[in-house]
Inverse folding.
């Protein structure tokens, strides 16, 4: 069955727009604005700019770090503490974002939103707090945009913490 829209189930053709929904609760106004802007970009019929695609790639990398199995990556706890919310337990720590529950995806998107709104300052704080290490910020991120690489390069010298 050919897919006509992202609003249609790829398996059975069900119109996902007619399914039941839960209201979203945002951790704060700043995050709500970020997510609404992100959704507007995604729903736009205009072609995506490279800068938008780069941002989505960085968002994906940050989600990978938030759900990382690396013992030395404590970014999830750090971000929850910064926003003053309770940390949630992930059902499967290494799962892809797309296979997570809607509650986990919403939680992760909000944490990443808070981080990327002021990425350089907030990543620096996470790095100084030992929630993340420099090598994890670029691990497996082969197509990282230059602006992201410029930010994380500032965290390459652990002696500057």
């Amino acid at each position: 069955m050919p897919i006509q829209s992202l609003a249609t189930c790829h398996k059975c053709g069900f119109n996902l727009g007619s399914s039941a929904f839960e209201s979203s609760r945002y951790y704060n106004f700043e995050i709500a604005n970020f997510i609404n802007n992100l959704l507007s970009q995604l729903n736009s019929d205009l072609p995506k700019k490279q800068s938008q695609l780069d941002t989505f790639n960085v968002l994906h990398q940050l989600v990978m770090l938030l759900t990382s199995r690396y013992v030395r990556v404590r970014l999830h706890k750090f971000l929850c503490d910064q926003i003053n919310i309770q940390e949630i337990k992930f059902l499967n720590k290494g799962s892809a974002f797309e296979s997570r529950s809607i509650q986990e995806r919403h939680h992760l998107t909000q944490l990443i939103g808070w981080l990327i709104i002021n990425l350089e300052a907030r990543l620096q704080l996470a790095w100084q707090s030992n929630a993340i290490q420099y090598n994890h910020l670029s691990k497996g991120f082969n197509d990282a945009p230059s602006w992201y690489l410029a930010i994380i390069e500032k965290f390459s010298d652990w002696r500057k913490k």
In short: The first helix runs from residue 29 to 43. The chain has one domain: 27-160. The CA atoms of residues 21 and 72 lie 37 Å apart.
